[in-house]
Design goal:
With 110 residues, this protein is an all-alpha fold. Helices cover 77% and strands 0% of the residues. The structure holds phosphoribosyl ATP. Its EC number is 3.6.1.31.
């Protein structure tokens, strides 16, 4: 099965970019972006904690909903910092094939 998250994140990114500069009264994204990156970061932190709590209690439905909130707020925070999911994808690709254990050990040697 071809994954659906890439196209979904692309479409979400396009919607967020299109909202930039819109009236904050009519767009939550425009409101967040006009409030500044610290507000965007605060919202991502809140949604991350909510997703973690849903996962910890084993609530699959809530975890899925909260995860969508996390992706949305991460997309807004990336936009607020001039970054994108493509940048994140490049970083993930860079890490492919490097074990997390080996990477941690290499950091300790530095
Ligand atoms: N995916 C989302 C999305 N996920 C969550 N949210 C909003 O994020 C907010 C967070 O929920 P909270 O309960 O924390 O809201 P709150 O307490 O009112 O927030 P604050 O007062 O703290 O800012 C809610 O208003 C949600 O509706 C989203 N808002 C927008 N999108 C996407 O962005 C697109 C553009 O939306 P607008 O910018 O609103 O047109 C939409 O078509 C969607 O694709």
């Amino acid at each position: 099965m071809v994954g659906k998250i890439g196209p979904a994140l692309d479409a979400l990114t396009r919607r967020i970019t299109a909202r930039k500069g819109d009236d904050p009264e009519s767009s939550y994204t425009a409101k967040l972006l006009s409030d500044g990156r610290e507000k965007c970061a605060k919202k991502l932190g809140e949604e991350g904690v909510e997703a973690a709590l849903a996962g910890a209690k084993g609530d699959r439905k809530e975890l899925v909903a909260e995860s969508a909130d996390v992706f949305y707020h991460l997309a807004v925070l990336l936009e607020a910092n001039g970054a994108s999911f493509d940048d994140v994808a490049d970083e993930l690709d860079r890490r492919a094939g490097v074990s997390g254990i080996a990477e941690k050990a290499s950091r300790k040697r530095r």
